[in-house]
Amino acid sequence: MTIDIAMYGPGPEQLPHIARRADELGFDGLWLGEHIAVPEDMGSEHPYCTGRSTPAVISADPRMYDIWTMVGTMINATRRISVATGIY
Description:
Elements: E1 4-7, H1 15-24, E2 29-32, H2 67-77, E3 82-85
Parallel strand pairs: 1-2, 2-3
Helix pairs in contact: 1-2
């Protein structure tokens, strides 16, 4: 059995630390979430939860980082852990 961590939102400066710690703790992989495009307006109401307000899945922070740079940063910081993306 493998145990991976799925994450979305950490900035580039946090990635090496997260990757090293996950490796030290024995996790097998890290999955990075990414979006190729982001809507201009992130409304708080989910289209499939009519009448209920839900928090946005992604933050309102408009910064999007290059996924391949992030993957390379994490791979470079670890010894054995695998890194994957959620879409690519």
